[in-house]
Amino acid sequence: MEEITRFGVSMEANLLTQxxxxxxxxxxxxxxxxxxxxxxxxxxxxxxxxxxxETVGTITYVYSHEVREISDxxxxxxxxxxxxxxxxxxxxxxxxxxLEVMVVIGTPNDIxxxxxxxxxxxxxxxxxxxxxxxxxxx
Length: 138
Prior knowledge:
Structural class: alpha+beta
Distance between the termini: 13 Å
Helix content: 40-55%
Number of helices: 4
Number of strands: 4
CATH superfamily of the largest domain: ACT-like. Chain A, domain 2
Shape: elongated
Order of helices and strands: HHEHEEHE
């Protein structure tokens, strides 16, 4: 485990009160744990923006399987990006709608392009990209 360094933080009382309420609601044991998570989140977000750090993420989308040839189109997109797609899961939500979740890896730009291609496909009702870190740089 790395050495722990202590440092002080100054802020307005009202801001600290709001922060304490939030960390209690989120079940953090103390302020330090919450601040570490905030810092990690900020670092990861900035790594995505740099565009050159290997990133992982999920692309989650819902589509109507009744739209003509949508399944074929989505499969073609996935095959076109097979090097970036680690895994996928398909769920039948009801007789008309399906949910797919894909785990992807690559640069933030590559992952965003895949997500945009999937989500903009006619018949996709909603989609969302969530990116995170591989953990190597934290």
